[in-house]
Amino acid sequence: MRTMITVWGGQTSRSLRAVWVLEEMGLPYRLRPVDMLAAERDPAWLAVNPGDFLPAIQDGDVTMVESVAIMEYLMGRYGPTPLQPAPDDPAFGAYQQFLHLGEAGLATLMMVPLVSGFLAPEAERDNWSARWARDCVERRRLLVQRQLQGAPYMAGDRFTAADISVSYALRLGGNHGFALSDAEQAYLARTTARDAYKRAYERSHEGVAA
Question: What is the pTM of this model?
């Protein structure tokens, strides 16, 4: 019998990606909330990830950070799963591209104007780096928009983990000043209508006042 997977994070952090994969695959897990705004960090959390960023998972002797890497680990270790096309699948290239674009090309860059807007001194919020990052996101979103012109999902006609990655990024951007196109909004409506997403979102917000 294997140990229960622990996911550190919760609410709208990138831990939602890991929890969504776990729900799609029907794997048991427990969620350990982390308050990233607390004045003092939980020593137990820092022992898991001294880098102090979300998410992290513990699976027996394995401890991992980085949301996309965690997704790949879960699918590789506990698959096969329809969330992950095989390398000889024609959809594999698009799947790989958008799986990583969702974080490296979108969510990571979105954090620059997002954090600047919330935490920087008012005079420094609209800075060169924030504007550059926003422009980069807008260009990279053109890849998502082009894909949606010919297919309902990032890897084609079926939902995969690439959609979990990209959906998180688009939702983050849409909630923080990025104007989503009609196609992107319709895409998000499709992906977040899934029962696994709804369960993941509810689990991630347990104990949070409405």
Answer: 0.94
Of 193, 206, 192, 173, nearest to 17 by C-alpha is: 192
Block residue for tokens 């029962």: 195
Q: Are 145 and 181 in contact (CB under 8 A)?
A: yes
Instruction: Give percent above pLDDT 70 in the chain.
Output: 97
